[in-house]
Design a protein that fits this description.
Carbamate kinase, 37% helix
Amino acid sequence: MKYKRILLKLSGESLMGENQYGIDPIRLEQYTHEIKNVVEMGVEVAIVIGGGNIFRGVQAESSGIDRVQGDYMGMLATVINGMALQSALEKAGLYTRMMSGIKMEQVCEPFIKRRAVRHLEKGRVVIFGAGIGNPYFTTDSTASLRAIEIQADVVLKGTRVDGVYTSDPEKNPEATKYANLSFQEAYEKGLNIMDMTAFTLCQENNLPIIVFDMNKSGNLAEIMNGNVNGTIIN
């Protein structure tokens, strides 16, 4: 097995499925199945999920909401998604823990690095909610930071497309896919993989990123075996 401990980054939008907003139970069940498969392979799984299907902090300003307030609202949206995913995983028979960057003891544990690592060592799926607990940081940055803190082997960015392309493959049929990229190449080409804070954290800590299609059945397990149908940035 190529990776022992992973951090899986999912966007909130991916949970919408075919819906316009909210959480699609079919997509939630599919993701649960994919995650359960790799846990049963012996992989330690941590997850960061966005909140864009409920509320995006960056959109708050356009509606007259203070940016900081909007970012906190976005963090709470990630907790809602995390709770939904946690419930689905536990229904499937997995042990989970949810840890939050903002204290909310009735719902989840506060993030403590040593405790998070211990949960992973015991085979529990750890979901990190509420970002890093500070405004102006995205869930991409949260994914990179938490991955470094728990000493994950890789950040897996699950998207709707099977890797990084020269341009948006959903809009441009001529777009070609990169199999491998260096951080420097991705930066020079201006490829919008993660925000710069997240990207720089991974680069400085030699943490590889794999962008792959989370919606394709079996893809996650294939990556664990070293068969990457996506793009590796390292």
